[in-house]
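This part of the workshop introduces the protein records we will be handling. The structure tokens are whole numbers drawn from a learned vocabulary of backbone shapes. The record below serves as our worked example for the rest of this section.

===
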Amino acid sequence: MGVYTFVCRNNGGEWTAKQHSGEIEASADTPYELQRQLVAAASAADSASGVQSSFSMVSPNSAVFQVIVGAVGGGAMMVSGGAGAGAAASGGAAAEAPKEEKKEEEKEESDDDMGFSLFD
């Protein structure tokens, strides 16, 4: 599992990103395009499956973007602005998948025995 943290800045309408402790860099016109490029670069650097990412604005012109490659929970990409990816990166109990509880299917009440009719 690899964790890649990027510092992103907007300068004159162009978004740039530089890895906090590494050599990956990217630039794009929009934050969304920048995120896509950074996820692709991080995925290429780490061949594990499953990617999670978190983009958090710090100011109108700066943000922090974190990509977790090899995250527990499948191969779907999730882009969020919260601490969810940070909690998964911390490991421990947060990384364990919760056990699935079996619930009994609730029986739907029938509209037949309401005691009145809509057309009476």
Summary: Residues 18 and 25 are 5 Å apart (CA to CA). The mean pLDDT is 75.
